[in-house]
Amino acid sequence: MDSLLNKEDMETVLDILDEGIQVVNCDGVIVYCNEAAADLDSLKKEEVIGSHILEIYPSLTKETSTLLEVLKTGKAIYHYQQDFLNYKGSKITTINSTIPLNKNGLLVGALELSRNITQVRELSERLVDLQEKMYAQKAAGPQAVKGTARYVFDDIIGESPEIYELKHKAMKAADTNSSVIVYGNTGTGKELVVQAIHNTSGRRDHPFIAQNCAAIPTALLESILFGTVKGSFTGADHRPGLFELANNGTLFLDEINSMPMELQAKLLRVLEEKFIRRVGDIKTRAIDVRIIAAMNMDPFQAVQEKKLREDLFYRLNVVSLRLPDLMERKKDFPVLLAHFIDKFNRKLDKKVVGVCQEALDYLRNHSWPGNVRELENIIEGTMNVMDGQWIQVEDLPYYLQKRKKCKEELLAEIPDGERFSFKELMSTMERKVITKVYHRTGGNITKTADRLSMPRQTLQYRLAKLGIATEDKEE
Ligand SMILES: Nc1ncnc2c1ncn2[C@@H]1O[C@H](COP(=O)(O)OP(=O)(O)OP(=O)(O)O)[C@@H](O)[C@H]1O
Ligand SMILES: [Mg+2]
User: What's the predicted TM-score (pTM) here?
Assistant: First the structure.
């Protein structure tokens, strides 16, 4: 590495990074910054280097600058949200990790990595503002707040016992004010169920607000949920949080297992005390909000893996609804298929009647990792481009057709119009199939045998017979 990258190369690499990097000496003077850090300040690198940190960030103080704090304490600060005005007066929000730099046991400076989340913050705030405006129209009548939760129980298609039981349980939950956890893999219909519960509950004429908790830095998510007061660089003096906006209604917290732990603790407190305090405020506000949380893993597992606080889990898990994978309810396949064909006939102005037997076999044999969403997307995509009335294998997406291609490739091995040895051809085909699957599994005999639905010993015998060198890589 040393011989490959010289100092200039390293500087170029650091300048390409999206993260800002700044280094200050023990007096707080900037001795290095990359392009991204200079961009944050709307300055050029040359203008930044050699200046004191507070000259470049006039809105920061000795107390609020993370770099100066680290110089004072000698202790690292990780993932801290910093709001400041840059040299040009633009409001910038970053997430910083700041570490002390020591030489021979002496503190000589500090280094800071900054991720600019200004745009994320602005978009989130705009969303909160829009929701606020929308619900402010409540005066125009309850209908004005409808439309945010579109789905009702009739939209949940399925005749399997699993879906029947799920709907029954969810309808009962809709009659109460209890918290609910909805969990299941991607595309299984969690959002559908959550909205249906709200729309059937006594809160249906009040707001339904959804917030995804994934990938939002702690401090930002906190201000989105609880609101802010003046001085928090939020653009408005006072901004209500989603809890306030959802008052008397339902707050849907999606991917709650991605919510940072410290925020989960605050959420628990709100649920228990039933009041919130905006960030930076001393006043508390009473709220009456029903919480429905969703996640794509088993909540017990989330607790075990420390992704969900145990106390919050018990508080939320009054009712828990598990959404089965599509593969677990194959009985629903025909009704879902008919439902989506009907939906896209209307939407795309088509007259598709159904799926031909061969294409249906392909669909039935697919493993559906994306569940109902994947089925819906496949039907939509297929119906967009097809001409006939029946969906054929050729109309299906390429990745579903691959199996057919594979079959055709093998059949193409049959010599046309000349004599051939059946035994030899079968042996060639056998070799091709086994070698391909063996390589695809990374040389794992157990997996190869499993995929070929063949006993392990049989596979080993055939591998030896075909002279395929094996080096079993079992896990
Ligand atoms: N039982 C169902 N009947 C009809 N449509 C369904 C059903 N389940 C899911 N869908 C459709 O599948 C799509 C995905 O559903 P939804 O958004 O509720 O999934 P999700 O479980 O929230 O997934 P993710 O974890 O990825 O957010 C939606 O377009 C929805 O209409
Ligand atoms: Mg969802």
Answer: 0.76
pLDDT digits (tens, 9 = 90+) for 442-461: 888 888 888 887 888 888 88
Ligand 1 binding site (Cβ under 6 Å of any ligand atom): 156-158, 184, 186-192, 296, 372-373, 376
Q: Which CATH number fits domain 120-323: 3.30.70.270, 3.40.50.2020, 3.30.110.40, 3.40.50.300?
A: 3.40.50.300
Residue nearest to atom 9 of ligand 1 (CA): 189
Closest Cα partner for 98 from 112, 116, 83?
112
If you take atom 27 of ligand 1, which residue's CA is the nearest one? 186
Q: What tens digit of pLDDT does each residue of 374-387 get? A: 999 999 999 998 88
Ligand 1 pocket mutation, candidates 162, 182, 188, criterion most atoms within 8 A of CB: 188
Three-class secondary structure assignment of 351-386: CCCEECHHHHHHHHHCCCCCHHHHHHHHHHHHHHHC
- 186 CA to middle of ligand 2, Å? 7
Give the position of tokens 């969303």: 127
Superfamily assignment of 7-116 in CATH?
PAS domain (3.30.450.20)
